[in-house]
Amino acid sequence: MTPPAEMENVLRQFALQFNTSPELPKMTRGWDRTILVQAQDAGWVRALRVEAGRVALLGAAEAPGGAEIVLQGTSDVLAAIFRGEMSPTEPYLDGSLIVRSTEADMMKLDIFTLMVWGE
Amino acid sequence: MALGRGGQQLSHARKRVVSVSLGTRRRDHAAALTLLGTPVDIVRRGFDGDVDAALRAIRELDGRVDAIGLGGLDVYLHVAGERYVVADGERLLRAARITPVVDGSGLKQTLEPAAVRWLAVHGPVPLRGLPVLMVSAVDRYGMAVALEEAGCRVVYGDLMFTSGLPYPISSLAELQKIARRLVREVTKLPIRMLYPTGQEQERPPEFAFPEEYERAALIAGDFHLIRRHVPPRIEGKAVLTNTTTAADRADLAVRGARWVFTTTPLLDGRSFGTNALEAAVVAVLGRRPEELVPADFERVLHEISYSPSVVDLEQP
User: Fold this and answer.
1) What SS3 class is residue A95?
2) Which of the residues A60, B81, B164, B267 has an alpha carbon 20 to 30 A from that of A48?
3) In whole angstroms, what is the distance from residue B159 CA to residue A51 CA?
4) Looking at the domain B108-265, which fold is it?
């Protein structure tokens, strides 16, 4: 089980990678979204905000109710995705990652996570 | 009997080929052609995007026809020496145990560069320096390379037109980099998320990124993707694509397009999808698809005196 403090580091590192990518700020132009990350086994919730081509990790108290995208899974699956150790496609297809969003947003998020961590 | 490549004897007994397509059933047809001296009956059956129905059809056809073509999706994407497999396509491919199944990508890799090379020499529009929008290139990388070699200035719309991302890809090197990061994973998603299938192919266009269409003098790539996003006016532009119907060409004419170049060969006066034609080649040569090499397809193109079709939409 991935504890909240470690997940916080993982998400911070993800945001840093995202914001220093040469492509992602352009790719996400006009795609302003809040992403809620819910670890079902560990009981924590974190939120990322994508806005104006940058990602910010919101504080635990700022996790909003009206997120456009909700990711639910075990803390280890979520941590592995945001660390780039696992693509989101496989856990989504086998049901260990639940994505509540439009299909178009889901596909975009899939692409962004793959772009962040590279080949 | 005639001799095939490597000296093996070819039987000229009539062959049966079925193209199983995820496209609309409204384009179903049956036709006959003669290829390398062998008569081939080709039937096209559309399944309106229903992968499971297409799967059942392939199982029923297995062992009863000489070859099966898969239309309306690619199974293999070949990008810069890498081969990526589309998961839904692979399911269909593996549904047949006896009859060879092909998706046309083998033939496409030979056919489309040949079409561009022909257009560079004989076409009505000079390609050198021409601004091109290629709506998607990972599905026809050979065409992309040939356009660059012909001196075109190409923008690749893979991310814009399959994912809605405002990111025109501006070089083959960048396309390769993005493909290496994305394609292996994205191709695991259901085909309906990646490509218009079935009735999606007939929906009115929802134009997107019109500035990219506006900037280009030549719009290239898969026709369903072009059509899905085409703006109301594409005045004087040329379209280079796989195949079109008379209704497609009429629609392009209404939008002001001038030229339509189609890569799919005309045989006995009819146009066939590359999957159907590759299946016919496999049936006629009597070889497994994995045994075929580009030289086999080059030979077929030579024997049918291949050239792309050029239609001037301003000529009645």
Assistant:
1) coil
2) B164
3) 19
4) Rossmann fold (3.40.50)
Amino acid, single-letter form, for residue B290: E
DSSP code per residue over B230-267:
--S--TT-EEEES---HHHHHHHHHTT--EEEE-SPEE
What is the pTM for the complete model shown?
0.87
Note whether A52 contacts B: Cβ–Cβ < 8 A.
no
Alpha helices in chain A (DSSP H): 4-20, 24-27, 75-83, 89-93, 103-117
Is any Cβ of chain A less than 8 angstroms from the Cβ of B182?
yes
Q: What is the pLDDT of residues B227-256, one digit of tens each?
A: 989 999 999 999 999 888 888 999 999 999
Judge whether B173 is closer than 8 Å to chain A, CB to CB.
no
- Which residues of B are less than 8 Å from A27 in CB distance? 159, 165-167
Q: How far is B144 from chain A (nearest CA, A)?
A: 21
Interchain proximity B178–A115, CB inside 8 Å: yes
CA distance A116 to B210: 28
Angle, CA A118 vertex, CA A59 and CA A82 arms, to 5° = 30
Residue A70 near chain B (CB below 8 Å): no
Residue numbers in A near B188 (CB within 8 A) = 89-90, 93
Give the domain ranges of chain B.
2-104+266-306, 108-265
| Domain A4-117 fold | Nonspecific Lipid-transfer Protein; Chain A (3.30.1050)
